[in-house]
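Morning, I've got a small favour to ask if you have a moment. It would help a lot if you went through both lines with me. Thanks so much in advance, here it is.

***
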Amino acid sequence: MMQLIRGDEMNCGNTNEFRLQVVNKSFTYRLSQPQADWMPVLAFTATIGPDGSFEATAGNGYMRGKLSDGHMHGRMSGDVCGFTFDADRNGTW
């Protein structure tokens, strides 16, 4: 689940389902930001460290967080909107 923490609900949305696939301790997440016509999609590619932390940048945006006991929590910021996110594992990392 993603929760808006920066930006306008009309343009950014309020809550969105957050899904990603972790393969070999890495993942890519594409943040759609159609209101930013100069960069409508930010692609964050992250590698999960031994301590469960991850961080990625794309353009002016960032995504960072941590995995612990099958739960992921973090923050993501694009050009126009910012979110916190939480996800629970339903497969293997």
In short: The mean pLDDT is 88. Strands lie at 2-6, 15-16, 26-32, 41-47, 53-58, 61-68, 71-77, 82-88.
